[in-house]
Amino acid sequence: xxxxxxxxxxxxxxxxxxxxxxxxxxxxxxxxxxxxxxxxxxxxxxxxxxxxxxxxxxxxxxxxxxxxxxxxxxxxxxxxxxxxxxxxxxxxxxxxxxxxxxxxxxxxxxxxxxxxxxxxxxxxxxxxxxxxxxxxxxxxxxxxxxxxxxxxxxxxxxxxxxxxxxxxxxxxxxxxxxxxxxxxxxxxxxxxxxxxxxxxxxxxxxxxxxxxxxxxxxxxxxxxxxxxxxxxxxxxxxxxxxxxxxxxxxxxxxxxxxxxxxxxxxxxxxxxxxxxxxxxxxxxxxxxxxxxxxxxxxxxxxxxxxxxxxxxxxx
Length: 315
Description:
By secondary structure, this protein is α+β, with helices and mostly antiparallel strands. It contains seven helices and five strands, in the order ααβαββαβααβα. It has a five-stranded mixed beta sheet. The chain is elongated. The protein starts with a helix and ends with a helix.
């Protein structure tokens, strides 16, 4: 009797377990059925976790030296000229012959020493084809007196090809999202895919803009020139390592500066003399009047002393 009851209880427990398992499976199936339908796309791509074509690693893993080098060259130059208009015209002619263009041109006036002579200064930003930069600099060096020149070389090869590789991946991702958007069946799916697509398009445009900037900087080197109009060119001498030579140069330079400043002062004084005379006129008049009064007092005092001396003698 006991065995029958135990068997019956075991059968009931098994039935309950079967029922609960069936209900759970039914609920899982129902939740899947209520989920939004996914867009039908090729089996190569999924939704949400998009599997993209493998990135082309040739630009990253390849030897950068074997790729076309992307070099940006910039030159900063300070120069002087005694014929300002002629020099500017010659530089522009050489620039046009080299196939370059003028990006910025600005002129200002500055006083030369303490005289009324005003010299002009030109600030020029020139863009020259990279392969003609050296020839252009040599030509300009024969037109003006170059006082200083600094060159900078920047290798952007790695950055350039890394951006290209990223663009390839983003273009593939863009094609996937466009395909998914065309197959979207609900508004929520379309909005979600459009948001991802717009982000990808923004990245693509930003990278393309950067590539255009790099292409421009690589293809056309930049020369920034400060051209000054002068009466005499500045001397460019290598400093001597010997103390005696340095002392001699300092002595000569100081006297040259003294002579130059003395000449400037003489020119300024002659030019300003009429004004100084007019400004000093009231003081001169006052000084003459006071001197005249003092002279009269001295004459009276002298006469008085003479009269007193005469009276003393007569007594």
